[in-house]
Write a structure and sequence with these properties.
Elements (H helix, E strand, L loop, with lengths): L4 H12 L4 H12 L5 H19 L9 E11 L13 E10 L5 E7 L4 H15 L5 E3 L4 H11 L7 E3 L11 H5 L1
Parallel strand pairs: 1-4, 4-5
Antiparallel strand pairs: 1-2, 2-3
Length: 180
């Protein structure tokens, strides 16, 4: 590479902290005296994101025994989105399942419906990513969670304990995933 690995690392770090490509280039020029085109930084991001992504896909997260799951309504306006209807904004459901100990996002999905099929898919993905079943699952009162947990994670002795009426001020709450 033409540039030192320290400069490439700095550029990637600044970009993933939310700095624009042009501002990253300006920062490096201002503080390091090295002139870099913003398109070069973009090429680095594409190149190294693929490398890091393929490495991350080989890792298995070390998760705790409690998961939090929640769904929320999100407005989608993008013209070329498969979720928009004739160019008009539309609401979709964003589902998340997070480990309570590590705050690792185990699974997420975007759907147009909020039912049993979607809940089962969320828990199936979470089980496959984690490679295990949790001891506890905290959710809101959506009935699809109850059935989805039974279908995907079992309902006998080895089934996780499902806390489904966790309020904001309760000892066991779903605040972790709600704030996500």
């Amino acid at each position: 590479m033409k540039f030192d690995s320290e400069i490439v690392t700095l550029a990637l770090d600044l970009y993933f902290k939310g700095t624009s490509l042009r501002k990253v280039a300006h920062h490096i020029e201002q503080f390091r005296g090295i002139k870099i085109n913003h398109t070069t930084i973009y090429k680095w991001i594409k190149k190294y994101s693929k490398i890091v992504s393929s490495y991350i896909d080989t890792l298995k997260p070390e998760l705790g025994d409690t998961w939090n799951a929640d769904e929320m309504m999100v407005k989608v306006r993008q013209e070329d989105s498969p979720f928009t209807l004739r160019g008009k904004a539309r609401y979709v459901w964003l589902w998340n399942c997070m480990d309570a100990d590590t705050r690792f996002l185990i699974a997420n999905q975007v759907t147009t419906k909020r039912g049993l099929r979607e809940a089962r898919n969320l828990f199936r993905t979470a089980r496959n990513v984690s490679g295990k079943k949790p001891s506890f699952i905290v959710t809101d009162k959506l009935q699809a969670y109850k059935k989805g947990i039974r279908k995907e994670l079992g309902w006998r002795k080895d089934a996780p304990i499902h806390v489904s009426d966790a309020g904001i001020s309760d000892i066991v709450s779903n605040n972790l995933v709600e704030r996500l």
